[in-house]
Specification:
The complex is a heterodimer. Chain A is α/β, with parallel strands linked by helices. Chain A has 6 helices and 12 strands. Chain A has a 6-stranded parallel beta sheet. A 4-stranded mixed beta sheet of chain A has the order 8-5-6-9. Chain A has a two-stranded antiparallel sheet with strand order 10-11. By secondary structure, chain B is α/β, with parallel strands linked by helices. Among the domains of chain B are: about 45-290; about 425-468, no CATH class. Classes of the chains: A alpha/beta, B alpha/beta. Chains A and B meet through helix 1, helix 6, strand 9 and strand 10 of A and helix 2, helix 3, helix 4, strand 1 and helix 8 of B.
Amino acid sequence: MDRRAFLDVVRRRLAGVAAPDLPSHLPPTFATGDGRLFDRFAAALDLAGGEAIHMRLDELSAQLAVRVAGCATAVVAPVVDHHEAILEGLARAGCRLLEPGRDGAAHADLGVTGAVLGVAATGSVLLAAAQGAPRTVGLLPPFHLVVLPEDRLVPGFEELFEQMSALAARSSNLVLVTGPSRTADIEMTLVRGVHGPERVTVLVVTA
Amino acid sequence: MTADPGTFEQRAHIGLQTPGLAAALGRAMDYRAVQRAQAFAGTDEPAVRAAGEAIRAHTVANLDHYLERFAENAAARGTKVFFAATAAEAVEYVLQVLRDHGAKLVVKGKSMVSEEIGLNPALGSADVEVIETDLGEYIVQLADETPAHITTPAVHKTRGQVRDLFNRAHGADLSDDPAELTRFARDVLREKFLAADVGITGVNFAVAETGSFTIVTNEGNVRMCTSLPRVHIALMGMERIVPSFRELSLMLPLLTASAAGLGVTAYVTFVNGPRQPEEPDGPDEVHVVVLDNGRSAILGGEFHSILHCIRCGACLNVCPVFRQVGGHAYGAVYGGPIGMVLAPLLDGFDAAGDLPHASSLCVACTEACPVNIPLHEHLLGLRREIARSRATRGERFAFAWWGRLWGNARTYRWSARLARIGQLPLVRRRRIRRAPFPLSRWTSARDMPALARGSFRERWRRMEGRGP
């Protein structure tokens, strides 16, 4: 149906319907920040089944090597903060790099990405599709490792959504990721790792 | 949207006689209730709900304005927006997109609107393979059924039934361990994601300000559907919109807290348009189908606020009737209290006019609704409208006389005295357990207490003067 005709029907039906104003103040929810950053982020992510680890940049490669032990292959987003330290850590762990395209990601044990920001209240990271940041790297491998500079942590949803329209203008796809993929569709039994990664680790790095 | 055959009563009997169904539903719903309480703990729940209600009321009252802004902003980002007045228009549009791309395999995320427009049967008859990818929906599809709950489609299936379905469909030899079953489904569906031509999903909220839309999932199937195939088609009811991201900062936690509880879902996907030139992957085309299909007729009328619904399923989880009979008893796409109001309005009184009666009016649904929709009042209102549209001349005559008799104190007392005598042949131990038609419609399911020997007024008069 023509858009104008469709909206005209809606407009006619709504004639005379009183419209309240949008609330000027939004009350806090569980996703509202309280000023704490890393501690709250780690607690919320733990609750969602993921883990967050705080470290200095000079510890990154050694820490990363410990976390990814057992992964034979990895894909790394081409554009990511601390790229060199990440590659060094993967080399230390004996992890072979695959091409970060769809095929590589579909076969890798591990995907390493950055994140636009992290939300302390919910333990979430925001991934943005962008040049050098394929969607598949953080999606197809069973283990997703995120390297997040600490200054990108925001307290809660209010601060996240303040930035969303600017972020949306720059990327076709944003995903707020909170812990591993999960389901309770069979008898409400929690199972981790359905379609997305079953393990999510966020390395929060101070400079 | 076609109702299953039979009446609610007949379908409810199937649910009631299904061994273990009520117990399974009860466990699932209790679990949800605990999680919901935890998600709201430490917040001012009435204030959060009032804000949610105000956002929905404002948006729906200005729906034409926000839909227009959404369509313009989405088009500016390269998203193709189609307005479908009817289910048939929506289905035809989807089929046309599939034909344009020569699509053979479609992966689908959870979408109640796709159930509403009967998309899967239409695609099947057009020789397109459609795979439901939400685990619960996949189970329901293998069983050749429809979802039994808005957010937990396979809530009525036991692990043994799921094992049998998977083993039969894939010639596998799986145990009934949910983890093993889930892993198996993951492998089967992963192949489909990588091979699919088109992904189809629903929409939780569209954002007028930017032309974006958002979809929440826990499994990650929607990330696959919106990232891997060349084409993504999203289906949304026309009321599923917010003015800007600011409102989403409240509506999103409100939705996830009310639906499953305990924090935010594993994934919240924001689709802002098709892949941009410099991006390495993502769909080349994004389509949004905005569906009316009877919704505009609800706008501005007595039941207007039902369009504030955000499809969280909280009213199902607390409904004592739903917990006994299950989602299929409603014979409509949306079950439980929200379905009892929506189905008669969208499908007509002939198809779903018995649904508003499947409630004890205990008001649990209204108390649970995160955007304060007065569901029980809508149920009463619909009962009135349905009775008005259906009453025969005889019924109207009888009730008019009843009204006159009972509207007058003298004739009321006189009728009560007559009834006390008339009931005598039916009363056994102060109860009426069986009665001839039309009273048998009552006594077939429950007893009627016998009328007392005297009314309160009569006893009062006898006791007067005797003191307390």
